[in-house]
Amino acid sequence: MKSEILKHFEDMEDPRVVGRTIHPLRNIVFITVVGALCGLTGWEEIADFAKYRKGFFSRYLDISMGLPCEDTLRRFFEKLKPKVFGERFQRWASSLVGSTEDKSVSIDGKCVRAASKMSPDNPVHIVSAWVGENAMTLAQVKVSDKSNEITAIPELIDILELRGALVSIDAMGCQTDIAEKIKLAKADYVLAVKQNQPTLWDDTVRSFEVMPACGVEQTTEGGHGRVEERTYTFCDDLSCLLNAGSWKGLAMLVRVDSRVTDKKTGETTQCTRHFITSCRDMKRVAGGIRSHWGVESMHWTLDVTFGEDADTKREGNSAENFNIIRKMALNVLKNDGVDYGKKRVSLKRRMLKAANDDQYLKQLIGLI
């Protein structure tokens, strides 16, 4: 069992001084990830948890030299290079996700607010790739200082294996060079169009006013006390687009009309969104647009369930590295292998169970 855990992290570069370390890298990373699975976020509480559960950790780790204290955990993740940790994270996540062919990969960014406010000259803004079918974060990159998501998205695309995937990105990523990069990766794109690109926006809106639709898809979904009805209208006549040829592989325009009804109050809200896509499979495009909600939900979960936006870790690389730890925990908890049927079991309850049920925690560890 000890030889299997963290196998994708074993060859990770240790940031500590050679010959002056007591606790193995494996121990530090494993204890921190398990702490996150149990809902812990502070170095002190993770170190305390390891002491309280010393017998449990001894089943997986060589703790003959004792357990790392909170300062050891803190210093390690402050010094650990996020790029190195992120590469191993991607290797691990890819082993669980498998091929992305015929899957929806959503790309979106998020700022770790508290840490960024405390270090305004070095904000922690992360762009992540989310695989909807697996409900997993596949990879991430940090936005460079004094830059934005437009520069980070191509970097993320470069490190992913996207052949056969449908990649969705919000309006920030609706750029001709990003569309070309996705097509060169042998994937398709569906990019949100907004008024930050007025010419493309006006031409897209006008297309649906004067050109015939080539197809329509409709979906109705319920949950969280509301019903959402969506109508996806497709147009493959691109003659109204001034620069249609600039978008590599562009196949269709998409208009999505959404109507959301609150089941308790009966109140309804409506909105219309527009997209461009290189994919000609209308059902798949509709599914990809809907799937993009998953990466936004993941960011909401990091904020609300994991308390990331309130976390003040900021020294060195600790904020970015702990963002990876949280995503590891979220990937595992979302895919815990338990059949809950129609019963909804929140992540908070799963964390509580992990902290108190050794058998369940052992099952989660099997995915690390």
Could you explain how this protein is built, in words?
The chain is of the alpha+beta class and 368 residues long. A nine-stranded mixed beta sheet has the order 3-2-1-4-5-9-8-7-6, sandwiched between helices. Helix content is 40%, strand content 20%. It is elongated, with a radius of gyration of 22 Å.
Q: Can you lay out the helices and strands and say which pair or pack?
A:
Blueprint: H1 25-37, H2 43-52, H3 54-57, H4 70-79, H5 82-97, E1 104-111, H6 113-118, E2 125-131, E3 136-142, H7 149-159, E4 166-169, H8 176-184, E5 188-193, H9 198-210, E6 215-223, E7 226-235, E8 252-262, E9 268-277, H10 282-291, H11 293-304, H12 318-334, H13 347-356, H14 358-365
Parallel strand pairs: 1-4, 4-5
Antiparallel strand pairs: 1-2, 2-3, 5-9, 6-7, 7-8, 8-9
* Arithmetic mean pLDDT: 91
- The rounded distance between the terminal residues' Cα atoms is 12 Å
Radius of gyration based on Cα positions: 22 Å
The percent range for strand residues is 15-25%
Count of β-strands: 9
Tally of helical segments: 14
TL;DR?
This protein is of the alpha+beta class. The protein is built from 14 helices and nine strands.
